[in-house]
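> call design_seq(struct)
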């Protein structure tokens, strides 16, 4: 499980240090994909295998499923962290998420998310107002 907020830097080659706390969980490899709200998702191998299996069950006759699978798959990059715990974020994905040098990595339970720092600041400020009110509507009893 992934929790917390971290602020590593993206270097000129598009490399990013994964938070040290999560390196062991991701050491065998991971998948970086497009995420909603123009961030990137970082999936551990076991979780991407589960998601892929679910996507494979989608009927090919469903246009929305085809569209989603195309965008998800074509914007994915399998990565293995180097000995220093860095991954390379490909140009296509850096562009998708409008990543600059300053990024924010958040734990989102089953995945990490990589955000441009300015985009995360704007998003989280917008969401803070409704966070307390949403819990009962979205997750009754929490």
């Amino acid at each position: 499980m992934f929790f917390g907020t971290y602020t590593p830097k993206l270097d000129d080659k598009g490399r990013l240090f994964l938070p040290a706390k999560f390196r062991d969980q991701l050491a065998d490899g991971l998948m970086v994909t497009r995420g909603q709200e123009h961030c990137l998702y970082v999936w551990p191998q076991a979780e991407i295998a589960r998601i892929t299996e679910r996507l494979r069950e989608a009927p090919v006759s469903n246009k929305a499923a085809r569209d989603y699978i195309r965008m998800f798959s074509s914007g994915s990059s399998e990565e293995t962290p180097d000995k220093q715990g860095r991954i390379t974020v490909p140009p296509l994905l850096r562009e998708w998420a409008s990543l600059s040098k300053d990024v924010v990595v958040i734990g989102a339970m089953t995945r990490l998310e990589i955000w441009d720092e300015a985009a995360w600041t704007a998003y989280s400020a917008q969401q803070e107002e409704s966070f307390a009110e949403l819990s009962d509507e979205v997750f009754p009893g929490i």
